[in-house]
TrEMBL record:
InterPro entries: HemK-like (IPR004556), Methyltranfer_dom (IPR025714), N5-glutamine_MTase (IPR050320), RF_methyltr_PrmC (IPR019874), SAM-dependent_MTases_sf (IPR029063). This is Release factor glutamine methyltransferase. The keyword Magnesium does not apply. Residues 88-163 form the Methyltransferase domain.
Amino acid sequence: MREILISEILNKSKEYILAHPEIKLSSYQKKKLSKMETLIKKGFPLAYVLSYKWFYGYKIQVNKNVLIPRPETETLVDLAISWSSLNKPKTIIDIGTGSGAIIVSLKRNIKTKTQFYASDISKKALAVAKQNAKGLNIHFKHGNLCSPFSKILKKNPDKVLITANLPYLYPKQLLEKSIQKEPRLALIGGKKGFEKIEQLLKQISKLKLTNSLILLEINYDQAKKLSSVIHKLIPQAKTTIHKDLSLWDRIVEIRIR
Ligand SMILES: C[S@@+](CC[C@H](N)C(=O)[O-])C[C@H]1O[C@@H](n2cnc3c(N)ncnc32)[C@H](O)[C@@H]1O
């Protein structure tokens, strides 16, 4: 851990630091290192201490107001990019965008004539997402789930891609030490765990989407229950469950013809 922090302070690779044990830090650098080590001891995740996390090959700025993007979510981005390359969506919307990791990765990889949107209920999270999306043409909206986009989607219901990594943990999972410092709003999906996802599906079922795809990240044990919710709410949709790299059920894909 020390090598990572020193490499950050000196802007050198970890390998360089390991190969040069003779390096001396200035008193300013020593102070900085000691502050960082104190935060780590207090249980702050490395990404918060460094203020960034690599996601899909991009350096994403993070702070305590956003969830630290997880590698599992890269599976969702892969699926979104491959569907987009074949289907050329007119509109892409990322719900619960947090740091903006998903929408920024999509915008950087999808070169079709597409409008890019993202939303979050947390204004503080949106501020971070906007920072990460600087120079990219992404429109951010504040509000509950799909509501900020109801007008846009009523007007343009064809070829829409919706991505959402909403909170999906159960309250008891909050006891896990690794997530103690992340925002509750980004983690807990109500008693059932998938209440926000269900609410989003209800909103989507009222839209008249055609030739569209919805990609939702879920908890490892929610696929069966959510599939039956989807079957009830959007009976015309075709649902597929994708596993993450650790082989847990992780992404629900909903195709609407
Ligand atoms: C699990 S985090 C995911 C963040 C980001 N999409 C990612 O994959 O790293 C969930 C995000 O959903 C947001 N959120 C929670 N409830 C919401 C709601 N009702 N409407 C919109 N966003 C919501 C949280 O503020 C948080 O930023």
